[in-house]
Amino acid sequence: MSYKEFDTVVMRADLPSHGLRSGDVGAVVQVYSADAIEVEFVTASGHTQALVALTTKLVRPVGPKDILAVRQLYAA
């Protein structure tokens, strides 16, 4: 999958060091290569939780049958 800036993506795995879990939604803010992107994850109130460089294998695009939910953040 090829991503571009401002694409919305979903985490495929937990990333506890950044307080992220599988299913968390973020926005692509930088594309480094075909398999490396930087993604920003924000809380529901708009504060940045994590800004992380990831391989594209760790995310997927938001799908038409996805629904958003809220969870309490227990970040490290």
Low-confidence segments, ≥5 residues, pLDDT <50?
A: none
Mean pLDDT across the residues is: 95
* Structural class by secondary-structure content: mainly beta
Measured as a percent range, the helix fraction is under 10%
Number of strands: 5
**CATH class designation:** Mainly Beta
- Helical segment count: 0
Question: In terms of topology, how is this protein built?
Answer:
Elements: E1 8-11, E2 25-33, E3 36-42, E4 48-55, E5 59-61
Antiparallel strand pairs: 1-2, 1-5, 2-3, 3-4
Question: How is this structure best described in words?
Answer:
A 5-stranded antiparallel sheet has the order 4-3-2-1-5, with no helix packed on it. Strand 2 and strand 3 (36-42) form a beta hairpin. The protein has strands spanning 8-11, 25-33, 36-42, 48-55, 59-61. The chain is an all-beta fold and 76 residues long.
Compact description:
With 76 residues, this protein is mostly beta strands.
Kindly list the characteristics that best describe this protein:
single chain; 76 residues; mainly beta; SH3 type barrels; globular
